[in-house]
Amino acid sequence: MRAWLGPRLLAAALILLAGTASADEDLFGTGRLRIGVGDRLVLWNVKPAIRTIEAAASRGILLDYVQLWLTPGWQDSWLDPLELREIERRGALPVVTHYWFGDRISRERFGAERNEWYASLWRMSQRIRGERPVLVVLEPEFNVKPPSGERSVMEWDGFADHLRAAALMIRSEAPNARVGVCPGDFPGPPRLERVLGPVADDLDFLAFQEMRARTDPESGRPGYLEVGRAAVDYAAYLQRAFGRPLLLAYVAVSSHGGWEREQAEALADVARHSSELRRAGVFGALYFQLFDDPAHEGYFGAGEKHFGLLRPDGKPKRAFSVFRSLARRGPTERGRTR
Questions:
Q1: pTM reported for the whole predicted model
Q2: Of 209, 276, 200, whose CA–CA distance to 243 is shortest?
Q3: Which of 31, 115, 274, 307 gets the most CB atoms within 10 Å of its CB?
Q4: Rounded to 5 degrees, what angle do the CA atoms 194, 196, 200 make?
């Protein structure tokens, strides 16, 4: 790997990157809210395996985005350039979400794993080179509370320097990449100015998320399922504070615990507020998973296994028809009824 790590990288970033980020009108301009789905390019958790974009098309949905999440230990097969080209051929853009630290992120963890983080980003950059743009989302929910006894990156000025350096490295290796970072929309004042203020102009866009589940301790509070309204409010804050194009990088509402109706209602609230999201600067929105994933784990416990719009056997939940109303329609392919 090239010498992208350590002080040389930071010095190069500070000298070379200032002012290089630009808002591409074709990607971030006005128009309809563009719709996508994740969280992998190929659905290996259904039998037989099928491309995400094909699974959507077989159900009459034309996607604008297909999202892939990269976690530590990711394999080259997860990010196959041939699959990226197939997505592009079908008129969609890949969204590669680099989720290295997850809920473990802290100043201490970043310091310990910095070299591995840069190495993963460099390797990713080699695989997303191409003639068409690829959206890269860095470190979703970096503003989460750190593990006990560790310090938040929110209180560390150096984190902005590393985000800037990462954006420089990715664009130098993959010039058509567009790079953003993704804070979580958590309860309480967001207070992102210290960490994002110094770097926002060096990023192509900012992203954010909205996740809901019955297993969340917050699930009983009033307005919990008003996901669209919450997204508009958070987008308005980000736009006021930083003035960047915005991506609703993932909406995830779990149907676990008899919440199929609630899942549909929450997604319908996004649909009702789609015009307001556009006015707030949101150019696209993605739903987290097309299919339920029985192996998925995370903060929401049992709820993590039921974020999908479709059950593992391919049968639709109520929320699937809401998602179809948001997305572009296409003909249902004969014989593809899974």
A1: 0.91
A2: 200
A3: 307
A4: 140
Q: Mean of the pLDDT values across residues 60-66? A: 96
pLDDT score for 7: 47
CA nearest to 280, candidates 328, 318, 229, 316: 229
- pLDDT band (50, 70, 90) for residue 12: very low
Hey, how many other C-beta atoms are within 10 angstroms of the C-beta on 272? Answer: 12
The Cα 176–Cα 197 span in angstroms is: 24
Q: What is the mean pLDDT of residues 211-230?
A: 96
3-state SS assignment for residue 145: coil
CATH architecture of the domain formed by 33-329: Alpha-Beta Barrel (3.20)
Closest C-alpha among 221, 217, 300, 235 to residue 274:
235
Query: What is the mean pLDDT of the segment spanning 233-246?
Result: 98
Q: Tell me the average pLDDT of the chain.
A: 90
At 237 the three-state DSSP class reads: helix
Each residue's pLDDT tens digit, 126-168? 999 998 999 999 999 999 999 999 999 999 999 999 999 999 9
Q: Where do the domains of the chain lie?
A: 33-329
Distance (Å, whole) CA 217 – CA 324: 30
